[in-house]
Task: inverse folding
């Protein structure tokens, strides 16, 4: 126990400052500023792997580490779409996951946001569209913000999430 | 020695060390596999090729020999003898071959495996080059799970969307109270047509797709692909390039083991473990990016060598970070060891005895934790592992604790190897450039990834296109064993037991 406490003290606080929102990642505006003001940053995310190679999952996991400390920003991952404000979707959507993704989207209460993660989520990536892949996420459900990268770094993913929940610039 | 008669007829195959090739008849297909099984040999992979001549392949290993057995079939709908009785893991591989290529093993289980509702039975994704890109619509998705009957038995269906940041798959638990009587997994949800996609690529660009078969094993897959590709081209890579690939492979192992050790602590209710190990992992990924250019090395291994001419100073800095991570991980191991709650959850959970592991063909990291002491880096070392002489970690216990201990041991060993590489890496070019092969050829890549042996079978056609590329993940062998590991345990222990295997969905579903 002493060793555990000593390790905690020695480690200290390693959390870094979060990145600013990035308007270039935004695909569409859905939420009104008023709603965003109410929602603030107390955001619940449901992650859906719709066919990814699991590379993006590794970087989404990293958001929870003490360095990015996403929970410190008031954002947390939840176990059910019914508790979620935002869906974080990875992968080209495999046709075998198409129904599950649609149902997850339907189960998420309005107003809801969707952030597509990774080159595959944005465009279908290297896998493209074929007998088993429906390609990019927006082919299946509407997407608000798309974050490219293979995989995108945790900072980029966080910037994408923060973009989705920040008010769009009025003159955009 | 009964294997000799097969090896005497076989020819050498270019690629990974120890590889032999043998074309067999319908009778000797089963007989050969039987001889391997009798000698403690294992099945590495089984796959089919549907273009003429229609062929089914089985790769068998009994150190120091790896034998690729090829059986030519009469046509796309002919059958062959099932190997599932000898090697239970063959069952799902045979069902997958039927889904993709139409060839069927004579086995009691004829349920589709990778095919759900995305394409109908008559459509063969790898059937021929003329296969239409979009198949006709299939019927509703139905799958005949094995039912457990009896008083008080009920089913818990879980997935495909899971309650965490995790890949999709379906688990069907049959339970009495909290106790699991049976678990049946259904996978294939992230099947995205990778093998068909390969056939549209040139051989000199396939390594990028290979790296994305399972992102957490990108180096293992891209190295295996390049090993196969370079074998077809008849080229050897510069010594320094091989050392840099090994450096990248060990970096990948370190990152994954750090992640798993934290997640396992968390699943045992010890959040401190997750916080500390995920911090260490972040530190490690940043050091990897500083030295090799990427946090996850999806584009580091390329045909002829590596993409980045990594400088010795950068490797030395990485080795310094490795030593720090090693010290900290040692401290955390002592904390895990002394924590009664963690020990209580780890010890005795999800046990796979050595006997069961041998029978089911449990491989890789999980295999080594159940007394199956095999590691390609030790058993069939390619450069530079023949000079680095890695020490194999293993345990006889087979429970979650054993899989944690093997990870701790392998973590330290990989960090030691990284130090040794920094110290001894030869100078010279980190990539050689050679013309892409234009002839018909076949090559095999076989690399011990962090999860276990990763294989790529690559066949090229005239002109340099990929005729067939089959990637094989060790998860094929290990998913069925997870179903045994959970028997008699309680449902709430499943996340912990599952995590202790940490198998790939994407690498399996292709």
Result:
């Amino acid at each position: 126990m002493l060793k555990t406490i000593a390790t905690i003290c020695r480690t200290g606080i390693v959390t870094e400052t979060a990145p600013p929102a990035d308007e270039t990642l935004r695909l569409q505006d859905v939420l009104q500023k008023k709603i965003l003001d109410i929602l603030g940053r107390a955001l619940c995310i449901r992650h859906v792997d719709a066919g990814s190679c699991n590379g993006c999952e590794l970087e989404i996991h990293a958001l929870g580490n003490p360095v990015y400390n996403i929970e410190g920003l008031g954002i947390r991952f939840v176990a059910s779409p019914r508790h979620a404000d935002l869906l974080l979707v990875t992968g080209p959507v495999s046709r075998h996951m198409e129904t599950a993704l649609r149902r997850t989207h339907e189960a998420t209460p309005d107003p809801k946001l969707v952030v597509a993660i990774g080159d595959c989520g944005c465009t279908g990536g290297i896998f493209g569209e074929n007998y088993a892949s429906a390609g990019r996420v927006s082919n299946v459900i509407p997407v608000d913000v798309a974050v490219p990268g293979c995989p995108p770094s945790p900072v980029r993913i966080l910037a994408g999430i923060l973009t989705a929940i920040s008010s769009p610039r009025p003159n955009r | 020695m009964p294997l000799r008669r097969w090896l005497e007829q076989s020819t050498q195959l270019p690629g990974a060390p120890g590889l032999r090739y043998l074309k067999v008849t319908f009778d000797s297909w089963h007989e050969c596999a039987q001889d391997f099984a009798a000698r403690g040999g294992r099945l590495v992979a089984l796959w089919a090729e549907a273009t003429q001549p229609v062929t089914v392949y089985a790769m068998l290993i009994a150190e120091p020999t790896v034998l690729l057995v090829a059986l030519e079939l009469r046509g796309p709908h002919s059958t062959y003898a099932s190997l599932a009785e000898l090697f239970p893991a063959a069952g799902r591989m045979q069902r997958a071959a039927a889904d993709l290529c139409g060839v069927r093993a004579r086995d009691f289980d004829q349920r589709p495996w990778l095919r759900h509702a995305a394409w109908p039975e008559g459509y063969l994704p790898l059937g021929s080059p003329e296969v239409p890109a979009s198949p006709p619509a299939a019927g509703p998705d139905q799958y005949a799970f094995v039912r457990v009957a009896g008083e008080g038995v009920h089913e818990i269906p879980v997935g495909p969307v899971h309650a965490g940041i995790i890949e999709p798959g379906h688990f069907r638990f049959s339970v009495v109270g909290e106790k699991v009587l049976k678990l049946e997994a259904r996978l294939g949800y992230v099947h995205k047509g990778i093998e068909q996609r390969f056939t549209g690529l040139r051989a000199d660009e396939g390594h990028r797709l290979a790296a994305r078969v399972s992102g957490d094993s990108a180096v293992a897959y891209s190295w295996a692909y390049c090993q196969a590709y370079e074998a077809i081209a008849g080229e050897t890579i510069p010594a320094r390039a091989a050392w840099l690939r090994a450096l990248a492979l060990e970096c990948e192992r370190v990152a994954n083991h750090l992640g798993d050790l934290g997640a396992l602590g968390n699943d045992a209710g010890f959040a401190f473990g997750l916080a500390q190990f995920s911090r260490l992992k972040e530190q490690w990924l940043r050091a990897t990016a500083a030295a090799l250019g990427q946090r996850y090395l999806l584009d580091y291994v390329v045909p002829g060598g590596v993409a980045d001419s990594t400088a010795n100073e950068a490797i030395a800095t990485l080795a310094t970070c490795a030593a720090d991570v090693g010290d900290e991980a040692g401290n955390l191991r002592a904390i895990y060891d002394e924590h009664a709650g963690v020990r209580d959850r780890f010890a005795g959970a999800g046990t796979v005895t050595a006997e069961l592991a041998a029978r089911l063909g449990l491989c890789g990291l999980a295999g080594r934790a159940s007394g199956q002491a095999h590691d390609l880096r030790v058993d069939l070392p390619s450069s530079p592992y023949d000079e680095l002489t890695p020490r194999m970690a293993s345990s006889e216990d087979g429970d979650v604790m054993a899989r944690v201990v093997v990870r701790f041991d392998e973590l330290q060993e990989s960090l030691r190897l990284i130090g040794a590489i920094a110290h001894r890496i030869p100078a010279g070019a980190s990539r050689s450039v050679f013309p892409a092969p234009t002839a018909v050829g076949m090559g095999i890549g076989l690399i011990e990834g962090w999860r276990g042996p990763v294989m790529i079978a690559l066949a090229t056609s005239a002109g340099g296109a990929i005729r067939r590329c089959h990637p094989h993940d060790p998860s094929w062998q290990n998913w069925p064993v997870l179903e045994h590991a959970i028997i008699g345990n309680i449902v709430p222990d499943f996340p912990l037991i599952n995590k202790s295997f940490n198998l790939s969905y994407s690498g399996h579903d292709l």
The two ends of chain B are 37 Å apart (CA to CA).
